[in-house]
Records
---
Amino acid sequence: MFEADVQDVPQHSFTGDLPTKERVKQVIDAAHARYADHADGDVADYIPVLAQADPAWFGISMIDVFGGHYAAGDTELKFSIQSISKAFVFALVCEALGHERMHERIGVNNTGLPFNSVMALELNDGSPMNSMVNAGALATTALMAGGSPAEQWENIRSGLSAFAGRQLELDGEVYRSEMATNTRNKAIARLLESYGRITIDPLEVVDIYTRQCSLSVTAHDLAIMGATLADGGVNPVTGQKVIGAETARDTLALMASCGLYERSGEWLFEIGLPAKSGVAGGMVAISPGKGALGLYSPPLDRAGNSVRSQRVCAYLSKALGLNLFASSAHVKGTHV
Ligand code: GLN
């Protein structure tokens, strides 16, 4: 489907480096112009305050691993990070607990079911399956370092701020709106408790998780956060090492297989990049060793992924040569 949409786009070589800075800028501006009038999808309304978003808001930001910055459209508009936080909280917890323990305690396989599925838990004997869906994200947040819920929250906020390179703030209106309506997440947390998968107060975990989802970010912030994962865990703008290179690799592997929920297979087949979406309309997509895209466009598909952001990623993946799986035949006899 997306493949057909970008048939006219010239293919940049998938190997090696990004095109020149001038070319990247041109391509990003062209992507914004090409999709400016795209209107498919519906703005989320199950968290009441999110329904106020204007479907026309649209921003594309990119940060390369040298800290170079490209932007088109509404890249400084603030919105709640929502599920995109799951990838970065996973990274922080994985950095502390390690690859093996995350694999054992949470899991790394796709559920094939929607992000807030209760059935996924029941079908898998209470395994939260992966940190990119609500059950696994709640179980991951519960493992965050800290002696109290307040400390765990502060560690999440400061950790995600290090990824963004600035102090991120809670959007109180989004937090209150979600807390007033998130009975399903509370049920999932109780169910996890019943399976022995959460050993601290489950409602405190829902509170921290809702706060992490309510952190206010811009498309520009998301691009920096993603670029930190593209750059072996070092923030290319601040120079701070946020996590180790192995954790960055593990986080990207999980985003590739589970970042777009039950649509992850289609996403990888069409676009070929690790990514994570959130129901406020944000998306981050990462090209390891090259850079990351931060996108914002509120209308969503039925799985809860920004439609226009997906289209833009298909375009940029091809025009900038970002797809992880693509290669061109090497010129025979040139390997020395
Ligand atoms: N806070 C939202 C929820 O738990 C996040 C969901 C999402 O972005 N997909 O329902």
---
Amino acid sequence: MCVPDVREQTLVAVKPDGVQRRLVGQIIRRFEQRGFKLVGLKMLQVSEDLLSQHYCALRKKPFYPSLLHYMTSGPVVVMVWEGHNVVQTSRVMVGHTNPAEAQAGTVRGDFSFHVSRNVVHASDSLEGAQREIQLWFQGKELLNWDCCDQSITCEV
Ligand code: IDP
Ligand code: MG
């Protein structure tokens, strides 16, 4: 029996439009259903300072000011999910950045139609996930706990 790296973590956030539209539960359900483990969760009104660090690679994009406005328009729900290959699998579950190109069955493909209101964020790489988790969470806010079904969902 081989035990894969189940400790990989990623950052997922329900953006302000997703919170306003009461999609938080449906998004959490998809990650639980997939078998991933929730290790951190909080709701917050994001500061421009945090967002500018989070989206530092996009600072020069023409849509950057409207992105900041969108992301500070209301609370977000941010989470850390853990599991085998969770970074890549989360990106697939979330779907293409532009919902018009996102497959049905993905969060963006099911709940949105425009890139400026695409409901959810997920880290795009292992390095990005580590950076974003440290940015959004303090170490003590992440829980190291055992799922009672770990031997079924995590050992393959
Ligand atoms: P991602 O969220 O799929 O990783 P990124 O390219 O990292 O996509 O862009 C970050 C966020 O910036 C997107 O999720 C979306 O909210 C916003 N964004 C990206 N491209 C555009 C655009 O062309 N117009 C408006 N907003 C955009
Ligand atoms: Mg991105």
